[in-house]
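Is this the right way to post structure tokens for a design question? Let me know if I should format differently. Anyway, here goes:
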């Protein structure tokens, strides 16, 4: 079997995907038409990090009701199951971007599709309602109250995303500590220098893992600490190549892998770069010439740093082991 095809079909998790960024171009147009909105033809063509954030705001505008969330959740999960053998995902979404919609209604819609995908494809899902940092700490505090009031077992934790330059993590220490006291897991996007920001989010915000975190490499001492402590990082190859101008030679994922960082691959906002989690694994594993043993380490690391319960983790580890064992007994080609 072709190695890329084999990697595409191995069981996977995706811990870093934003629901609004999963919409296919066709679904985006349909929802825009339904909402009476005009979306530029180039909305999924991004040139920089700022361009991405601006165009993401246009995409978000088409989501006008719970039915829209139900549709895009099911489309994403079913598509990923078929194309990439996705077995577990942790979906981030930003309810405060939809002030005219009720959080419980959005939550119920996403849950309906997650349950449908579980029944049809065996995918497990957890939800990460996320703070849009641009809106400030006051909105974040009110949002946490809402999350806690409607918490069920599928709400694994909270996230922090949006424009990091507009609102650095220092503004959210109190709300993140309160989330931790309530038993929520925590993650935050760290997409800009300084290198110390990764450890700051872990030590001061109490983050259980970090989304991105590439610029920690700018300080060898900070990077070594992150590697030594095996701090979980979810890294996204394609979207950052597009928004940051990186490639295989310049992308931080290369040295992160070389220094045994605790990494899991994610898609981030897959529609903007026409990717899926299977394709991300192929690009990284083939691009950095990982052995099948190293591919297995990466797959298992994703399970380990997920927020799934121990029973589900055991199931996922077993699925990966069985698939890898089958792969090693077959004939693998690089063609």
């Amino acid at each position: 079997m072709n190695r890329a095809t084999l990697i595409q079909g191995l069981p996977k998790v995706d811990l870093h995907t934003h629901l609004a960024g999963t919409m296919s171009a066709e679904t985006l147009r349909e929802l825009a038409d339904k909402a009476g909105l005009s979306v530029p033809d180039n909305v999924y063509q991004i040139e920089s990090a700022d361009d991405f954030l601006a165009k993401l705001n246009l995409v978000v505008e088409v989501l006008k009701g719970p039915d829209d969330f139900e549709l895009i959740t099911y489309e994403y999960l079913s598509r990923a199951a078929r194309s990439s053998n996705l077995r577990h995902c942790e979906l981030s979404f930003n309810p405060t971007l939809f002030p005219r919609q009720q959080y419980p209604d959005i939550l119920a819609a996403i849950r309906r599709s997650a349950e449908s995908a579980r029944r049809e494809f065996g995918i497990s899902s957890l939800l990460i309602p996320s703070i849009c940092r641009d809106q400030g700490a006051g909105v974040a505090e009110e949002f946490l109250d809402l999350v806690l009031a409607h918490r069920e077992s599928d709400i694994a934790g909270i996230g922090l995303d949006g424009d990091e330059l507009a609102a650095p993590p220092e503004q959210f220490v109190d709300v993140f500590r309160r989330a931790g006291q309530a038993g929520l897991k925590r993650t935050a996007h760290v997409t800009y220098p300084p290198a110390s920001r990764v450890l700051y989010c872990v030590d001061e915000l109490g983050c259980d893992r970090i989304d991105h975190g590439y610029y920690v490499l700018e300080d060898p001492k900070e990077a070594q600490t992150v590697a030594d402590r095996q701090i979980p990082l979810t890294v996204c190859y394609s979207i950052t190549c597009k928004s940051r101008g990186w490639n295989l030679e310049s992308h931080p994922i290369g040295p992160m892998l070389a220094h045994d960082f605790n990494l899991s691959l994610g898609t981030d906002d897959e529609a903007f770069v026409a990717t899926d989690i299977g394709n991300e694994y192929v690009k990284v594993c083939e691009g950095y010439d990982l052995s099948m043993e190293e591919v297995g380490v990466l797959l298992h690391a994703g399970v380990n740093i997920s927020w799934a319960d121990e029973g589900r983790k055991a199931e996922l580890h077993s699925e990966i082991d069985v698939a890898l064992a089958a792969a090693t007994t077959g004939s693998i080609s690089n063609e």
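Format looks fine. Someone answered above. Worth noting: The chain is about 50% helix and 15% strand. The first helix runs from residue 3 to 9.
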